[in-house]
Write a structure and sequence with these properties.
The protein is α/β, with parallel strands linked by helices and 247 residues long. It is built from six helices and eleven strands. The strands form three sheets. Strands 1-2-4-3 form a four-stranded mixed beta sheet. The chain has a four-stranded mixed beta sheet with strand order 5-6-8-7, with helices on one face. It has a three-stranded mixed beta sheet with strand order 9-11-10, with helices on one face. Strand 10 and strand 11 form a beta hairpin. Helix 3 crosses helix 4 and helix 4 crosses helix 5. The structure holds zinc ion. The site of zinc ion has 3 residues, from helix 4.
Length: 247
């Protein structure tokens, strides 16, 4: 039995059972977590306990250091034929199409984005990976433009912030920014976060329309609007690592 799903912190999480395994085995990669366990415990392993998760994150931090010190060592492919990525408004998945030759098509239907690929497509090829990222980014941008400005303006009205304009980018280095003219820029990759984290980023940028810095006053204001701020910020930091590799 094998389950694969997308997790914002770990990327692809692959859980498989081995009837003959007596131990739980975690294989930590930068963009992937593979968990092998006896069938009887498989369903109890996810979500991970805080303790296990922390140990694994430390391992990944080490792995990342190693990869960086080796120079431009290629990152492991992020998309595989079994990858499923859940975004806020749609799910991305892959399907083979025997009629295609070395090409792809994509279709979105009922909140499922299916990327059809030819049987001869090489998923390990970096160009292939780039195509998949472009497809995902394309649809994330469309959805981000539909969702984020409305959500931001709702909060702005609720808390009496004034916003000049909202722009959507495909920035991977930061989730959002706000300039002195009260123009807020938001990354379309926000759409890959759980909604409470998206809201945290939106409130953060809105607070910048009054406080341009990260002063105590800024955080006092933000914590008033987002009481879960400290816990959520920790979660957000972990996820950022994954998205940044997409540059
Ligand atoms: Zn800020």
């Amino acid at each position: 039995m094998k389950k694969t799903f997308y997790d914002p912190v770990w990327g692809t999480v692959e859980m498989c059972s081995r009837s003959n395994s007596r131990l739980i085995y975690y294989d930590v990669r930068i963009d992937k977590l593979r968990i092998v366990s006896p069938q009887s415990v498989l369903n109890r392993l996810w979500p991970l306990t805080k303790e296990i998760e922390q140990n694994l994150l430390a391992k990944r931090a080490e792995l990342k250091k190693k990869v960086t010190s080796q120079g431009n060592a290629p990152l492991k492919a992020a998309f595989t034929p079994t990858t499923q990525i859940q975004t806020l408004t749609f799910q991305m998945q892959f399907a083979i199409d025997e009629r295609l030759h070395n090409s792809f098509t994509a279709r979105i239907e009922k909140q499922i984005l299916t990327v059809y690929y030819a049987p001869d497509v090489d998923f390990d090829n970096p160009d292939t990976q780039r195509v998949f990222k472009r497809v995902l980014t394309h649809f994330l941008k469309i959805e981000a433009k539909r969702y984020l400005p409305t959500r931001l303006r709702k909060f702005a009205a609720e808390h009496q912030f004034s916003v000049k304009d909202v722009k959507i980018s495909s920035a991977v280095q930061r989730w959002g920014s706000c300039n002195a003219n009260k123009v807020i820029n938001l990354s379309c990759y926000l759409m890959m976060l759980p909604s409470e984290l998206i809201d945290l980023v939106l409130l953060h940028e809105l607070c910048h329309t009054v406080e341009m810095n990260h002063s105590d006053h800024f955080y006092a204001l933000l914590r008033k609007l987002a009481p879960q701020h400290d816990r959520l910020t920790g979660e957000l930091k972990n996820i950022s690592l994954n998205i940044r590799q997409w540059q």
